[in-house]
Design brief:
349 residues, alpha/beta, 6 strands, single chain, six-stranded parallel beta sheet
């Protein structure tokens, strides 16, 4: 689906379903609002789904892509690691796959722009990795839009196949550099404020990473008011693809879970395209990367989990699922005060 058409077809939340869900929480036998954010999440999903819903079919979509900026020496390892980890997704051997098995989450790895082809991955790529953003645009605007639009269509396919909730994940050596550049442009913040150590850089390497991001911003001059321009100039294919997933959730009426820093950058890009898309997002955890909190504040969202995580791959999104499952069980199975001998709790002002 073309981006313009997608933005015209964003769904409205079901206010009646939202009100009914809120009323259900008021009626069940427990202290009011005592499950905190989890109650709000269930009510939000009810509004997204239009009433009764299940969380049986959970799908983690991991967007895998390579980044030309790795040639600047801003990561501990080379691009070949992207392919190695992507292959482990197909064999369900990675960290997030082990977590996903426990949480009952299906894993769908996608080649959004890897430098090599890996057997077992569905491909939506338009190029074998991005260009070096320190020297020029990461990709063309047309490539960015194509990857974004193919990702919107993936959500449509998932919805048609009975998916209840979409989780976002990514894999790509060097992608925290691109995410920092995107965040710098979207928030109009200096590189040193939004850049972290990624997968464990030394202080000297961090300084170099910051200088590379500054050079990328200066060279490409991304327009912070145009998310597509920002992603195509200083972003990455995985960010473009995850942006499409968030848009797709709003088009096809599925909740989409934000993972960590890189996923949050994509989420902000989507919301900058249309504020309504935020209604379909659930933030999983607070990334340890310095811009993690900045992005959550810009989105005006409060993460459910704060474990100091920065693994990526969708690990935070997967970690949220058992909490949502438990909250939904309470919501559906707990008795109401109508069948209890004690007086119901009252909302006090």
């Amino acid at each position: 689906m073309k981006l313009d058409n997608a933005l015209k077809n964003i769904r409205e939340l079901d206010e009646n379903a939202e009100s009914a869900s809120y009323g259900r929480w008021l009626s069940v036998v427990k202290p009011l609002f005592s499950l905190g954010k989890l109650e709000k999440a269930i009510t939000q999903i009810a509004a997204v789904r239009g009433g009764h819903f299940e969380l049986e079919k959970k799908v983690l979509v991991i967007m895998c892509a390579d980044n030309g900026v790795v040639s600047e020496g801003i990561s501990q390892c080379g691009q070949e690691v992207t392919a190695t980890v992507a292959k482990s997704f197909t064999e369900m051997r990675s960290s997030v796959c082990i977590m996903a098995k426990r949480a009952g989450v299906e894993v769908l790895p996608i080649d959004a722009g890897m430098a090599t082809d890996v057997e077992g991955l569905r491909s939506i790529k338009t190029a074998y990795g991005t260009n070096n953003i320190a020297e020029g645009s990461a990709m063309t605007r047309e490539q960015c839009l194509e990857v974004m639009e193919k990702s919107i269509d993936i959500v449509g396919e998932l919805a048609e196949n009975g998916c209840d909730i979409v989780l976002t994940g990514e894999m790509g050596i060097g992608n925290t550099t691109c995410a920092s550049a995107v965040t710098s442009a979207l928030l109009d913040m200096p590189a040193e404020k939004v850049t972290g150590r990624g997968a464990g850089l030394s202080s000297a390497a961090l300084d170099k990473k910051i200088e590379v991001i500054k050079k990328a911003i200066e060279t490409n001059r991304p327009d912070g008011s145009d998310p597509v321009d920002v992603i195509s100039k200083v972003g990455s294919f995985d960010i473009a693809a995850m942006t499409g997933l968030f848009i797709g959730g709003a088009v096809y009426g599925l909740p989409v879970v934000i993972d960590g820093f890189i996923s949050s950058a994509a989420a902000l890009a989507a919301v900058r395209l249309d504020e309504r898309i935020k209604n379909f997002m659930l933030p999983s955890h607070l990334s340890k990367e310095p811009a993690g909190r900045m992005l959550m504040e810009a989105l005006e969202l409060e993460p459910f989990i704060d474990c100091g995580m920065f693994l990526g791959e969708g690990s935070g999104a997967v970690a949220l699922m058992p909490l949502l499952d438990m909250a939904l069980d309470v919501y559906e199975q707990l008795g109401t005060f109508d069948n209890w001998e004690h007086e119901a709790y009252r909302v006090l002002r």
